Amino acid sequence: MSLAKVTLTQFSDLGLAAPLLSALASIGHTVPTPIQSGAIPTLLNGHDLIGIAQTGTGKTAAFGLPMLQRLTGNPIPRRAKRPRALILAPTRELASQIGDSLKQLSQNLQGVRIAVVFGGVGYRPQTDALARGVDILVACPGRLLDLIEQKACDITGIEILVLDEADRMLDMGFIHAIRRIVALVPKERQTLLFSATMPTEIAGLAKAYLRNPERVEVTPQATTVEKIDQQVIHIDHARKSALLAHLLGDPAMARAIVFTRTKHGANRVADRLEKQGITASAIHGNKSQTAREKALAGFRAGDLRVLVATDLAARGIDVQGISHVVNFDLPHEPESYVHRIGRTARAGASGTAIAFCAPDERSMLKAIERTTRQAIPVLALPAFVVPAGHAMPPITREEDHRQPRQPRRKQRNGSANNGHQAHQGQKAHPGQKHRARKPAPRHQSPSRPQGGGGGGIGDIGFLRAAAPRGQDR
After folding, report:
1. Alpha-carbon radius of gyration of the chain
2. Is residue 63 part of a domain?
3. CATH of the domain at 319
4. Residue 271: phi, psi to the nearest 5?
5. The pLDDT value given to residue 16
6. Whole-angstrom Cα distance, residue 254 to residue 243?
7. What digits encode the pLDDT tens for the residues 400-415?
8. Which stretches does DSSP call E strand in 68-198?
């Protein structure tokens, strides 16, 4: 594998056909991004490619322009009705975005048909599109396998295979689906793999599916966009909602995406903001495709000021003018933080990313800083959020990541407390006669976790309802 040299140039210097240059000019693109400068000549020469780049760097045009030029420069009869290029994407939003971008780029080309297939919607429109004949198919792995099993889609004529955001597809459990799909496409093909990070699993995938690929890497792995002003505020879960509302009181926070760890959390944050007069909507895997598209349209149009999202739902969202990204909950995976804050500072603009860090999230913050190789500046907690008489001392950098150790309580017989003691006044089971009898604390309900606050939105940090792995979201 060789490393392609990335040089900044003009689109007109890259060997692209006139209809593609005209389409780029019509949408205001004249200067390629670094990933486009490095990838387009390599792909036009027919090489396989590994592209390491964050979201918002122009990856779709980087592989879409050479793909369109190759397909239109070597037309074949449509009688087979089989797609010639296949782009796999992890989420519906990203698949739709890729399809829209390719349609823009191909506006001056005759006879190029593009179809997008994903789950969560009816099959009929997708099967009808495939039956009419498709040149480029953009697909989420789960729905594509369904269509193949129904014999509604034939991918045995694929000439170009693109694995976009491969790291996220692996995170979502699509590895088995990818293997099944790749086994069905011809071995003689051009294969492209794009990823924001290059963990061991992705390197193994590249070794298995790509032939002597060139590698284009435009930013160090897992680093964050330089134009993003990153900040962290230390606050307990119970006061995160008040802090978010306080920050949104600043008119400079004109268009924001707020990330939560769970779907239920996204709903609760959006509902709380709406009750406070802030236009907001949640977007996650439990929302119908119609509801998600409506929320995105309202956000793009400026009718919604805040979009509250989970990680999986937000992949592929490309909305210009996002001023702020707020990590209401820190993600378990540091790479997810990079993807989240990449929603702002796109296309050369600047942006701000604010993270809320509760005491039990400090290990996550430490992992993020270690992965991105930078310390995130700490902002003082606004006095507005601190109730009278409950002022908190500032957290110093030395204290920032220190996890207080919890002493283990011992029973009278010296064994660890397992939480099954008989309550005071109750008769113990004969087999438990030597166990200590200790009343349950009055201030804590046995069914609730500690530290989450009093039943408000602050409790969402403890909701761990994981979405099924390997499904189109």
Report:
1. 26
2. yes
3. 3.40.50.300
4. -65, -45
5. 93
6. 16
7. 443 434 444 444 444 3
8. 85-88, 114-117, 136-139, 160-163, 190-195
